[in-house]
Specification:
It comes from Clostridium brassicae. Keywords: DNA-binding, Transcription, Transcription regulation. This is Helix-turn-helix domain-containing protein. Residues 11-109 form the HTH hxlR-type domain. Pfam families: HxlR. Helix content is 48%, strand content 11%. It has one domain (3-123): Orthogonal Bundle (Arc Repressor Mutant, subunit A), CATH 1.10.10.10. The protein has 127 residues and is mainly alpha-helical. The protein is globular and about 45 Å long. It has helices at residues 12-20, 25-31, 39-45, 51-63, 91-107, 116-123, and strands at residues 37-38, 67-72, 78-83. A three-stranded antiparallel sheet has the order 1-3-2.
Length: 127
């Protein structure tokens, strides 16, 4: 059972961070924002995540109602992940966080290895 269902919150931000906080959850949601991905596809996009950690984060996001997990009965097993209808409601928040990161990097003159045309495509929801 989801840890958020066992806790009383006095602040919406605390609840939000329990659901999407940490190193990987927002990034997982970001990659699922406009497509369905298999486990191996997600793992390749998340540099440095272990298989165990990815499995744990996906389970928590599923328990919290943000992602769907679809298992295909075949050998080898095929599992796909996508955002639920409610999970889609976090996408505008993720875009805002993305834009904040771009602005932060510019303000502090940090090197982001993202071409400007890709940034623009992402901000206009073309990617």
């Amino acid at each position: 059972m989801s840890k958020v269902k066992d806790k009383t919150y006095l602040c919406g931000m605390e609840l939000t961070m329990d659901v999407i906080g940490g190193k990987w959850k927002s990034v997982i949601l970001w990659h699922l924002r406009n497509k369905t991905l298999r486990f191996s596809q997600l793992k390749r996009r998340l540099h440095g995540i272990t298989q165990k950690m990815l499995t744990q984060q996906l389970r928590e996001l599923e328990e919290d109602g943000l992602i769907n997990r679809k298992v295909f009965p075949q050998v080898p097993p095929k599992v796909e992940y996508s955002l639920t209808e409610y999970g889609q409601s976090i996408v505008p928040v993720l875009y805002s966080i993305y834009q904040w990161g771009i602005n932060y990097s510019k303000h502090f003159d940090l090197d982001l290895d993202i071409p400007e045309d890709i940034i623009q495509k992402i901000m206009t929801c073309e990617v």
